Every structure is written in structure tokens, then in C-alpha cells.
Amino acid sequence: MLKNKNSSAIVAVKDLDRAKAFYSDVLELNLADTSNDGVLGYRTGSTWLTVYKSDFAGTNQANAVTWDVGVELDDIVEGLKAKGVAFEHYDDMGRQGDIHICGSMRLAWFKDPDGNILHLVGSTG
Q1: Digit-coded pLDDT (tens) for 82-95
Q2: Helix, strand, or coil here: 4?
Q3: Which among 121, 113, 120 has a CA at the least distance from the CA of 20?
Q4: Topology (CATH level 3) of domain 9-122
Q5: Could you report the per-residue pLDDT of 56-72, keeping only the tens digit for each?
Q6: Buried b (16+ CB within 10 A) or exposed e, 91-114
């Protein structure tokens, strides 16, 4: 039924201006749609990320958005750290600095200003 349909991510935030600064300036996403009040639309790769205002922002304790960044993981992590992003550390996985190692996968997690968990997946090349 849905196997040939596109999907996208959606993230709830409490403060749209603060979220816009984070997603536009820190993550350097291009804001592509502001046509709906209380909603920001970002084009990210071949998909969409919708950021919207909600009183329930930050209540999800699981990944909200995942990006496959391939061999650029180290550079992206360092770039985000330089902008003040703090990375999550999980004790149940091996880790090198801020990057977790799980078999052949390299992973990093961080939160947006509302506590939404954002996830980077990298490869070893």
C-alpha cells in the first residue's frame, strides 16, 4: 500500500523562532516553505522535514529524524560541535569520542532545543 510512496519527517517544537535558528543556522538546512502559519518546511536531500509548533514538543524519547551522512560523519559532528551542539552518549554501545560504533555502523545523536532526538548514521567508507 505505501511501499512506493515518499515519506518525510515531522518534528514538534515549542518556539518556532528558536527552532528556525537551530534548523536553518546550526544545521544549515534550507528553509523551503513558510506558507502555513506555525509550520516550517525544510528540504533535506530528497525528502522533507516539517517543523511545527506544538505544546507536546520534546516529549518523544526516540529518534525524531535520521540523516544518512556516509563518510562525512566525522566532519559533520565536528562542525556541529563547533556550533555548540552537544552529543548524546549511550553506555550500551562502544564509542569513539561522540561517535558510537555498532558493528559496521557509526552513529551520533544530538538534540534540538526542544529535546527532539536527531540521529546521524555514517559509514567507514
Answers
A1: 999 999 999 888 89
A2: coil
A3: 113
A4: 2,3-Dihydroxybiphenyl 1,2-Dioxygenase; domain 1 (3.10.180)
A5: 998 888 899 999 999 99
A6: eeeeeeebbbeeeeebbbbbbbbb
